Amino acid sequence: MTQTILLDPTSERSPVVRPRIARPASLAGKTFGLLDIAKNRGDVFLDRIEQRLKKSGHKVKRYRKARFSIVAPEGLKQEIRANCDVVVEALAD
Amino acid sequence: MSQLSDGLIAVVKRECPTCVLVEPVLAQLAGGAGPFTVYSQDDPAFPARVKGVVDDRSLEASYRIGVQFVPTLVRVEGGKETGRAFGWNRAEWEALSGARGLGPGLPENRVGCGSRTEEPGMQFRLAARFGDHRLRSRQIEVEEEADAIELCYERGWTDGLPVAPPTVERVLAMLAGTRHAPDEVVGIMPPDRVECTVEKVAVNAVMAGCKPEYMPVVLAAIEAALVPEFGLHGVLCTTNAVAPVIMVNGPIAKRIGMNSKGNVFGQGNRANAAIGRALQLVVRNVGGGRPGEIDRACFGTPGKYTFCFAEDEDDGVWEPYSVEKGFGKGVSTVTAFTGDGVAPVIDQSSRTPEELARSYAACLRTLYHPGQVADVAAFLAVSPEHARVFYAAGWTKQRVKDELAKLLRVPVRDLKPGFGLDKELERLRREDPDGTVPKFRTGSLNIIRVGGTGLFSAIISGLGSITINPVTKEIKA
Which end of chain A is more exposed for a tag (fewer CB within 10 A), N or C? Predict the structure, then answer.
């Protein structure tokens, strides 16, 4: 009897472990990007975060995805990366 | 098996009367000067008058020689084939062998039989065993004592039900159902955003229980689900209950035996069940969309095992959905849309289209929440007996939609906040507090004709938004 061979139905990706981007030693003087993914009331949460960050002297930039169910477009990701040191993403409902 | 050895080769089987007829000829050739090899496909003791018959019950030699009929006589020179004869023909056999006076007393000519390599499904078994099939998927050996179905469970490849183990042979047979090459990329599959090849689709289609002739539908369904407007990523990662639903239009539905009539959304039809399941398994295995991981559904739906059917186009009164979408009559299409379940509309008393439309509206109005007018879509499935009421009054599908649109206005004061519409809602409350808005934005309520006996219709509710829409694709071989 011949050996049964099965074909792997998966994408066969070996999990890639990516190191997290190094955390800044201090948040002093850093620019924050606040990304609203367009979930309901995410803006309420981010408004409050913005207030508090500004109070402690941080620069804040606001961003928004068109819709929560789509992946953030490449351009938006690049813009955040180019202009911010730290990003806060709000998921709310 | 190494390169063919020079001389004459004959491939025979005892079951073939022509092979039995030429046994004296084979004995003549065996007694000749040149090298002569006889391969027997079914009985190494045949032909008894030839010594050293090679047992080819495994069909390896027959497969490599490419035998289609028996007897086959092949001449090999310098390791290459220089001539071939099928069946018995004295002149041909004499020309190939260089011998004279072969088979005295035999007729001049006698057709042969089919080679065992041509038995149903055999070509795939042999290609799997001996062939260069060029499939790229990782091969996993099943231990002799192990159960292949259990191995599929252990590897996490199933939706909870057993799958047909995807052997090389079955995958090769599945790939015969499409003209597309195994390494062709169908699209980028979320959520892992990996390339989904025709081969991976075939592997999963085998597991789902598909027949090769379903492949064009499965491939078109995946293509449709991968069009950005469908929003597959959102559909599979949402906390909502939706599943991708597949609807087939056009002649292919009958050709592959799909159900569009009684129990249309239910169990029992292989094509309906397996095609929908194949899409789900591709999402799971290729895309990595698994419940509890990226699939965050609160409830889910049984449709996530499979949800696939054909529209009933037999009565020819209403245009099929595909024709409404601009495809020609007679063109086979697949439509992917989102659905989270089937809610029957039971109305056995309405005999006028106006009454029936009011019944539909009353049921459709409450979908998701009576005050929800965003992110809600529906396919209204009208049964033949309900459809007759509209036909008798001359109402087209569009007329039913128009009437429903009039009935399905939601008062601004009843609107539910949320769904990204809060600013719009504030404006409406300020500017038009006594006004109404449509329950379904344009195009998010569709009507189809399906089902069996009974004064029923059914609603398949689902998501509809700027990023999640039904998508229709033509089915090509």
Answer: N
Question: Which CATH architecture best describes the domain B7-118?
Answer: 3-Layer(aba) Sandwich (3.40)
Distance CA B66, CA B70 (A): 11
Confidence of residue A1 (pLDDT cuts 50, 70, 90): very low
**Among candidates A3, A6, A12 on the partner chain, residue whose Cβ is nearest the Cβ of B165:** A6
- Domains along chain A with CATH numbers: 29-93 (3.40.50.10860)
User: Nearest CB to A5: which of B139, B196, B418?
Assistant: B139
Each residue's pLDDT tens digit, B284-310: 999 999 999 999 999 999 999 999 999
Whole-angstrom Cα distance, residue B301 to residue B143?
36
* Amino acid A16: pLDDT: 65
Instruction: Tell me if B379 sits within 8 A of B457, measured CB to CB.
Output: no
The complex's ipTM works out to 0.84
* B38, B50 Cβ separation under 8 angstroms: yes
Q: CB distance from A14 to chain B under 8 Å?
A: no
User: Which pTM value belongs to this model?
Assistant: 0.86
Of B379, B380, B371, nearest to B409 (Cα)?
B371
Give the pLDDT confidence of B439-472 residue by residue, as tens digits.
Answer: 997 679 999 999 999 999 999 999 988 788 999 9
Beta-carbon contacts below 8 Å between A and B: 100
Q: Which residues, other chains included, contact B183 with Cβ-Cβ below 8 Å and sequence gap of 6+?
A: B136, B197, B198, B199
Rounded to the nearest angstrom, the minimum Cα separation between B237 and chain A is: 8
Q: How far apart are CA B180 and CA B185, in angstroms?
A: 9
Report d(CA B477, CA B458) in Å as an integer. Answer: 32
Domain ranges for chain B, please list them. Answer: 7-118, 150-474
Q: List the structure tokens of B26.
A: 């084979």
Q: What does the DSSP assignment read for B186-220?
A: EEEETTTTEEEEHHHHHHHHHHHT--GGGHHHHHH
Q: How do residues A62-88 score in pLDDT, each as one tens digit?
A: 999 988 877 788 899 999 999 999 999
| B151 min Cα distance to partner chain A (Å) | 10
